[in-house]
Amino acid sequence: MARTTLTRTVLAAVSAAALFALGACSSDAGTETGGGGETGGADDGVITLGFSQVGAESGWRAANTKSIQDTLTAENGFDLKFSDAQQKQENQIQAIRSYITQGVDVIAFSPVVETGWDAVLQEAKAAGIPVILTDRAVDSDDESLYESFIGSDFVKEGVTAGEWAVEQYDGEGYKAVELQGTTGAAPAIDRKEGFESAIEGSDIEIIDSQTGNFTRAEGKTVMEGFLNKHDDIDLVFAHNDDMGLGAIEAIEAAGMTPGEDIKIITIDAVKDGMQALADGKINYIVECNPLLGPDLADIAKAVIAGEEVEKRIVVKDEAFDQEAAKEALPTREY
Ligand code: GZL
Ligand code: ZN
Questions:
Q1: 190 lines ligand 1 (CB under 6 A)
Q2: 47 to each of 79, 94, 144, 325, how far by Cα in Å?
Q3: Are strands 284-287 and 263-268 parallel, antiparallel or unpaired?
């Protein structure tokens, strides 16, 4: 089981690669600006892009950062300015303001939480600097504040996780605990919503739920708390692999066998999570593809060239059980 359609990212990457090939030769020529000149910005054919990253909180984030830094390179026509906000919204707002002051051609960022962005995005709009959202969404009424949002459907990820749990465990009176992602973050809000909707009508009951802030350390601490409070936990639903890996440590420290005594379902499908799945310590992982660099480069070039871009690009995700993880591990990119 567990293979769904190819990711849209792959298709976008192909078109982006073709675009790069064109872009590279034209910037090598150093003469034509590929149309970037007349629409403002990137006059020398180089797109200066300011990126504000959430932080370095998880394996997913590291893979996402690598994809962006490996793709938005000088030879691909970019001058990338990159900042890490240590998961603090005020640091992201500060970084975006500094990119506005520097007069970059494009601003891109992954909003750590959904709300509180309208003011700084209005400032970018007033400065005539287009904004692209990657990974996480903002809850803003004014869609003119950004050109495009490239990211997975987090509600669908939660539904996929919940549907598998129902398929496997319904009818056994399972008691579940939930390790939530960062409070207020789109993936945390939406994965919770999706999972809860999928288990409705089943006899799986969520008896406790708390944020582990998407980190392994906090996932472990919260799971230790759950184990002290409850002696009837059958299932852990963790909003990302890293918190699931922390839960494994807590479960083993309590003398129990993860994946057997307590089942675990997580989301991301990064290497460490897939290894634990293949080793039988996790039971199911829904992928959240972090390789957003090619889509971002593709959209940034189109925006600078004054082309229409899709407002919402949904990155396709797969899902893996233990058998599928053993098959996929040898060739996984992240
Ligand atoms: C999801 C991303 C989440 C990952 C976590 O697109 O925002 O943040 O699921 C990461 O691993 O910390
Ligand atoms: Zn929302």
A1: no
A2: 6, 21, 21, 39
A3: parallel
315 token code pair: 């990155």
Nearest ligand 1 atom, CA 242: 11
Domain boundaries, position 225: 154-288
Residue 42 — very low, low, confident or very high, per pLDDT cuts 50/70/90?
low
d(CA 48, CA 32): 17
In a domain, 211, yes or no: yes
For residue 136 the two structure tokens come to 């996480």
- Residue 162 domain flag: yes
Residues 270 and 293 in one domain: no
Q: Is residue 39's pLDDT more than 80?
A: no
pLDDT tens readout for residues 188-229 = 999 999 999 999 999 999 999 999 999 999 999 999 999 999
Residue ranges with CB less than 5 Å from ion ligand 2: 114, 139
In this structure, what DSSP letter does residue 210 have?
E
CA-based radius of gyration for the chain: 21
Q: What is the DSSP letter of 316?
A: P
Residue 165 lies in a domain: yes
The overall pTM is greater than 0.85: yes
Q: Which residues contact 284 (CB under 8 A, 6 or more apart)?
A: 161, 164, 165, 168, 265, 266, 277, 319, 320, 321
Q: Which residues lie across from 175 on neighbouring strands?
A: 205
Greatest Cα pair distance in the chain: 70
- Domain contains 330: no
In the reported structure, the alpha carbon of residue 189 is separated from the centroid of ligand 2 by a whole-number distance in angstroms of 7
Domain count, the chain: 2
Q: In this structure, are 135 and 243 located in the same domain?
A: no
Give the domain CATH number at 267. Answer: 3.40.50.2300
Tokens of 12: 């976008």
